[in-house]
Write a structure and sequence with these properties.
353 residues; mainly alpha; two-stranded antiparallel ribbon; 4 strands; 3% strand; globular
Length: 353
């Protein structure tokens, strides 16, 4: 019995080592063709997969049903740069696959931005089709309307408060003009006049409305153009990642652009996992970028960082947490800057007049 258990464990250990070797091995490259070809573009005779004179692939043939179908499949990632292959590697060797891509091993994999757009569109389609999603979407619409109503309500309350203060001061002055005059003279350096208080309330309302208006603008981008919203989010995450992961044992020194491409590929991986999660659980989270629970996103991100950068687990967790903090700070700064621009464009001239 003991020998049988030992044999099972040895078999499992052997399979795990084999899987580990596969993870560390880049996708194989198709051998070069030895057939003679005549380029249909420049009529040059050559041996191989591409014409050395003009660069046209040897696979280009005259148009027929087969070549037309192949062209359509290439658009959706089913050709030589296979999206299913890229998705498979992102699921089972994500960090190593991203490292291969950044090191220049790109031909076997589908282009990152194109893959992200297709996967995001697929996830949105599934979210609208799954049962129970309609009510969630309606809830979001109601929430948006409620948010708009609340902003309008606050604006009205601010205006009413300003008017109430002015009315109160005018009434007070009419009833007891001497008292009001002496009170204003006495507390001129400490208290604001009714007009100044109303002006201050107007400025406060404008500042609040600017923050709310810019937040609504960002929310509209998220709802109407999800891929663009994801790319903006990944840009801010890249800032934090670049601060702590630009030098690593496995990747050496990374440029900011390389770091950004890595984040785009990780986003595609999370979209694939979100699609699988929605199909298995029939649960959709329309208020988040991904349908996955937050704990799963954190675990997947740490595995990606560990495989891609080659740090030990403790350093990976520490650097990842610090990168998230820096990214959050930059996002807050972006919101403040955007709200300031919104304020200047919409309210500054009105307040001056």
């Amino acid at each position: 019995m003991a020998s049988k258990i030992r044999s099972i464990f040895q078999s499992i250990n052997s399979k795990l080592k084999q899987f580990r070797r596969w993870q560390l091995t880049p996708a194989p490259v198709k051998p070069m063709s030895n057939h003679r070809h005549i380029c249909l573009n420049c009529s040059h005779k050559y041996t191989g997969d591409f014409c050395p004179r003009c660069g046209q692939p040897a696979s280009v043939k005259r148009l027929n049903a087969k070549t037309t179908t192949q062209g359509a499949l290439d658009v959706w990632g089913m050709g030589s740069r296979s999206m299913p292959r890229a998705i498979f590697h992102l699921l089972f060797r994500p960090g190593y696959m991203i490292a291969d891509y950044l090191h220049g091993h790109r031909q076997p994999y589908f282009p990152p931005f194109k893959m992200l757009f297709i996967l995001t569109a697929t996830a949105m389609l599934i979210a609208h089709v799954l049962p129970g999603t309609v009510s969630a979407i309606k809830g979001d619409s109601n929430a948006q309307v409620s948010s708009t109503d609340s902003v309008a309500s606050v604006q009205a309350d601010t205006t009413m408060l300003s008017g109430a203060i002015v009315s109160h001061e005018i009434t007070k002055a009419a009833i007891n003009p001497d008292s009001t005059s002496s009170s204003r003279t006495k507390d001129a350096d400490e208290d604001l006049s009714a007009e100044e208080q109303a002006e201050l309330n107007k400025v406060k309302g404008a500042v609040f409305n600017s923050v709310a208006g810019f937040s609504t603008f960002v929310d509209n981008i998220d709802k109407t153009n999800k891929p663009l919203s994801l790319l903006i989010t990944q840009f801010f995450l890249t800032i934090g990642m670049y601060c702590f992961f630009r030098k690593s044992p496995r990747m050496g020194r990374l440029a900011f652009t390389e770091q950004f491409f890595g984040q785009v590929l990780m986003t595609s991986q999370l979209q694939v996992l979100s699609i699988l999660y929605m199909l298995m659980t029939l649960q959709v989270r329309t208020d988040e970028d991904f349908a996955l629970p937050s704990i799963i996103i954190v675990i997947v991100a740490l595995i990606d960082f560990k495989q891609l950068y080659g740090f030990n687990w403790w350093k990976t967790i520490k650097k990842g947490a610090l990168a998230m903090v820096v990214s959050f700070v930059f996002q807050v700064a972006f919101y403040l800057l955007g709200s300031g621009i919104y304020f200047v464009v919409k309210y500054a001239f009105q307040l001056e007049s």
